[in-house]
Design brief:
Number of helices: 5
Number of domains: 2
Strand content: 5-15%
Distance between the termini: 69 Å
Order of helices and strands: EEHHHHH
Shape: globular
Largest sheet: 2 strands, antiparallel
Strand order of the largest sheet: 1-2
Helix content: 55-70%
Length: about 180
């Protein structure tokens, strides 16, 4: 037996069309609560697919040429952490922009972003907020932020985070060599 769940977003959202889903499921749906539960599951599916896309495209997990299952499992564990962070930063950039950057970045990452990416000519609307540092991170990853550009996605956040990590490693090694 198949059930069709039809869900429409209430109200009119800004700058996008209303969500209008028609889902077909073979799971039992006997109430509004069960229908909402299935919609929430479906919503999670997109997050899971996005996570796997980061794992596959950014980490290039399929390209590793490790010879043992143990090494591959260790590599995938690290890639899962990296993929989660990229996905989390992408979601944070779309929602909690006015919170402290220390929620996401270490003190050294904040310092390096301040040194590497200067604020544009105008004052940042959020001051020293997470939004300011996420903007710096995506600019480090090549995001231009022009008026017509869509919000930065996983790839540009990956590139920015990858560059920041390389720079942080170089900074740390340089500080140890120089002794400062």
């Amino acid at each position: 037996m198949l059930t069709i769940i039809h869900a429409q977003e209430r109200g009119t959202p800004n700058k996008r069309e209303k969500i209008d889903w028609k889902l077909i499921t073979n799971l039992p749906v006997r109430s509004r609560v069960e229908a909402i539960e299935k919609l929430e599951w479906y919503n999670m599916r997109w997050k899971i697919e996005t996570f796997h896309k980061i794992l596959k495209s950014s980490c290039k997990a399929e390209e590793s040429r490790l010879r043992t299952a143990e090494r591959l499992a260790r590599l995938l564990a690290v890639f899962c952490i990296l993929s989660w962070r990229v996905f989390w930063l992408t979601m944070m950039n779309r929602s909690l922009t006015a919170v402290s950057p220390t929620l996401v970045f270490t003190a050294l990452e904040i310092h390096l972003l301040d040194q590497l990416v200067r604020n544009k000519g105008t004052r940042q609307p959020h001051g020293k907020s997470l939004a300011t540092y996420l903007t710096k991170l995506v600019r480090l990853g090549g995001y231009l932020g022009r008026a017509g550009d869509s919000p930065p996605g996983n790839r540009v956040i990956w590139r920015g985070l990858s560059r920041l990590t390389d720079i942080e490693l170089g900074f740390t090694i340089g500080a140890e060599l120089v002794g400062n």
